[in-house]
Design a protein that fits this description.
4-stranded antiparallel beta sheet, alpha/beta, Rossmann fold, binds S-adenosylmethionine, binds zinc ion, 8-stranded mixed beta sheet
């Protein structure tokens, strides 16, 4: 499933265009190479490591947290969210025309997979770039989205993506570098952002003793995009789920709480059955907002 055009990448060391090269011979592999001969080999799992210099200090998701995210998303509970994100992206695709999407903070690549399957129905000429700082996540996303170029990089640094080259940037529960998203987007491009609303996973927070996930107020979201974007439209997606204790444990563990909560303890707490309630599943509501932003300036 190759993407149709070379990805619009630039070298993190010198800014020159980066090309994908297939190195042949005994140790055949793929590499990204610029005109100044800086080269970045693909990891065995297929992603490229473009992390250079001193990165942002952050606590990476562990392999177990990434596995919990993969398992929870694979069960399909968040499919309505994925479909709504995909609809927002596909609305920008012109039938038969080239289209470039960047998924920033792609995680396991779950949402990008659904987006690309839908984009492909409208145009065969698409190019996808997926980036994340977690190598555990990228191993999964490279496997799920082999036609995308999967990059390990830090969104708080200059992105290794060319200027005005991307039609849509998607950011699903991931950090937002507004200036860089504005730089890589075409003037008529769009930024699609998913955030939680008040009450998101409220019952899960109560049962696990997690802090409730704070909703991200629209004003704060707009402020975080600091003068680079204006909101164009938004859509709320509410998902009412019935989850088993194992699914709830994955859901709790895959989020920020996973950095300071022990999964086994969460699972044990959730597994305490009420003998009067034979159904072991519990109601959990996920409340999302998808906001589409356009870059400030003479946009179409
Ligand atoms: C809550 S997860 C969301 C993942 C995916 N978008 C999803 O919804 O399944 C946030 C993602 O952002 C990534 N991330 C956090 N800080 C980052 C940074 N500075 N640069 C790039 N990615 C980052 C994490 O590794 C993680 O995969
Ligand atoms: Zn270079």
């Amino acid at each position: 499933m190759p993407s149709s055009a070379p990805p619009p990448l630039r070298c993190p060391l010198c800014g020159d265009h980066l090309k994908v090269a297939n190195i042949t011979g005994e140790a055949a592999h793929r590499s990204l190479i610029c005109g100044a001969a800086h080269s970045f080999d693909a990891a065995r799992q297929g992603y490229f490591n473009l992390l250079v210099g001193k990165g942002t200090v952050f606590e990476a998701d562990s392999a177990d947290m990434v596995a919990a995210r993969f398992n929870f998303l694979a069960a399909g509970h968040y499919r309505p969210l994925a479909d709504a994100v995909s609809a927002a992206v596909v609305a920008r695709v012109l039938p038969g025309s080239p289209f470039t999407v960047l998924d920033s903070g792609t995680g396991t690549g779950h949402y990008l997979r659904i987006v690309l399957d839908d984009v492909r129905r409208v145009t065969g000429e698409y190019t996808a770039v997926a980036l994340d700082i977690s190598k555990f996540a990228l191993r999964r996303s490279a496997r799920l989205n082999p036609e995308a170029v999967n990059l390990a990089c830090d969104v708080w640094q200059q992105l290794p993506v060319a200027d005005a080259a991307v039609d849509v940037v998607t950011v699903i529960f991931a950090p937002r570098n507004a200036a860089e998203f504005a730089r890589v987007l075409r003037p008529d491009g769009r930024l699609v952002v998913v955030t939680p609303r008040a009450g998101h996973l409220g019952s899960l927070a109560t049962r696990t003793g997690m802090l409730a996930i704070e909703d991200e107020k629209d004003a704060r979201l707009a402020e975080s995009l600091g003068g680079h974007f204006v909101p164009e439209s938004s859509r709320d997606v509410d998902i009412h789920m019935r989850l088993t204790p194992g699914e709830m444990a994955d859901l709790a563990f895959m989020g920020p709480a996973g950095h300071h909560l022990d999964r086994a303890a969460i699972a044990a707490r959730l597994d305490r059955r009420d003998p009067d309630k034979p159904d072991p599943t519990s109601a959990v509501d996920a409340l999302f907002r998808i906001t589409v932003f356009r870059p400030v300036g003479p946009a179409a």
